[in-house]
Amino acid sequence: MEPTNAKELLHSIAARLVEQGYSPAAPRSLDETGLNETLVDSLICKHLAAAGQESGRSIAENICLSFAILEDRLQRLRTRQILTHRGPAPLNDYIYSLTDQGREFALRAAEACAYRGPAPVPLTDYVNSVEAQTITAEAIKRRQLEQAFKDILVNPALFARLGPAVNSGAGLFLYGAPGNGKTTLAERITLCFGQNLWVPRALIVEGEIIKFFDEAYHFPVPPSKHKILRNEATDRRWVLIRRPTVVVGGELTMDSLEIRHNAHTRVSEAPLQLKSNCGSLLIDDFGRQRMSHVELLNRWIVPLEKRYDYLTLSSGKKIQVPFDQLIIFSTNLDPTTELKDEAFLRRIPYKVYVPDPDEAEFHQLFELTAPSVGCVYNAQAVEHLLANHYRPINREMRRCHPRDILMQVHNYCVYNELPMEMKPEYLDMAVSNYFTVVVN
In this structure, how many other beta carbons lie within 10 angstroms of the beta carbon of residue 362? Predict the structure, then answer.
């Protein structure tokens, strides 16, 4: 069926780009990089100020621009007596170092902005990359969800509700009692989507450099996993990563959702929602943040509706950036009773309850966990546990209990140099340790 309006057309184009495999083309000239001569010259000089001396090709490798682009800049800097030759290098190259005038130039450049390293990517190029790699163009099917959850136990009714929620690409609430695997579910959801995407190492907006690539959230794909002639075909200012899942919990503050500017170095850091674009953003333990949950909800209302966000540069200027991720709220709060903001709940169309396991699932969880701690599953021991420590006092079962209890048994057996076994008396001992703290 043909697209009927501009929005559907854009979505259709983005879907085709994703299918064909987006990759940022290597620029063939300085103009194609979107950067000006002054910025590139300052990156060259700041790098040499730290390195001392290097060949032109080595400088190009560190700045992530081709030697063909930098060769002219190196020659011009030498003509201006900012650089000097220290000797020849292979492949028609030279060893370069800074002159006294060049060291002054590098010092002034560092005072203006301390950033050195890969050349940044203009914001417009990044926006285009998000449209080409958008997570909303991925049509998730049941088999993909099953593959992502293949090694964990998920309640069939929960699985049936989770699939359409993930497929929508819109936000969702995962709510229920603590310890039932909401965080694990959220982290697995990203695996349903296409695995890899390109992200810039740094951005430049209105002359301000914003560090984007973050090793805490962005995991590069090993070069052997993608057959690409990176020196010729792709722009080295970009990194191929696994589709990201950014997880934040009680430590989340409003500052984390804004561009963080360092007044001393004059280098900025991208906010969390920008780093999670084309992936998933999990707000774990929603309601336990330092700010009120109402304040955090209000911060998301416009981005969830419009699929773009507004951020403020150090100059005070506001810029529009993509807000293109599956946002997941994992919470112990009941959104239907404790979050009464109708405007916000309308923008999070799926509210998925993660229930406690029943006794049959509890047995299955023990059976699934037993090999990971080095013991054989014992159904009679689990039945003993239920009969003596759960049913008599109506203790609620949680999906984390089998793992936590068996880890206590494992630690006990290792310490006492005993064979690792799922014995009733070992489970009694683990319960006396574990629930004394959790319940009382």
Answer: 20
Residue-number span of the structural domain to which 71 is assigned = 36-117
Residue 3 has pLDDT above 50, yes or no: no
CATH of the domain at 97: 1.10.10.10
Same domain, 146 and 183: yes
Take residue 373 and report the two structure tokens written for it.
């701690």
Instruction: Give yes or no for a contact between 65 and 33, defined as CB atoms under 8 angstroms apart.
Output: yes
Average pLDDT, the chain: 85
Q: Does residue 22 sit within a domain?
A: no
Pair of tokens at residue 191: 């695996």
Token output for 306: 């419009």
Looking at this protein, which amino acid is placed at residue 36? N
**Locus of tokens 């002034």:** 108
Spatial distance between the Cα atoms of 201 and 411, rounded to a whole number of angstroms: 43
If one counts every other C-beta atom within 10 angstroms of the C-beta of residue 172, the result is 23
Strand ordering across the sheet containing 245-248: 245-248, 280-286, 326-331, 172-175, 350-353
> Residue 4: pLDDT above 60?
no
Percentage of the chain beyond pLDDT 90 is 56
Torsion over CA: 399, 401, 404, 406 (sign): negative
Under a CB-based contact definition with an 8 Å cutoff, are residues 300 and 344 in contact? yes
Q: Which residue has the tokens 């450099």?
A: 209
- Claim to verify: residue 128 and residue 247 sit in the same structural domain: yes
What total number of domains does the chain contain?
A: 3
| 369-402 confidence digits (pLDDT tens) | 999 999 999 999 999 999 999 999 999 999 999 9
Question: In this structure, are strands 172-175 and 208-211 parallel, antiparallel, or unpaired?
Answer: unpaired
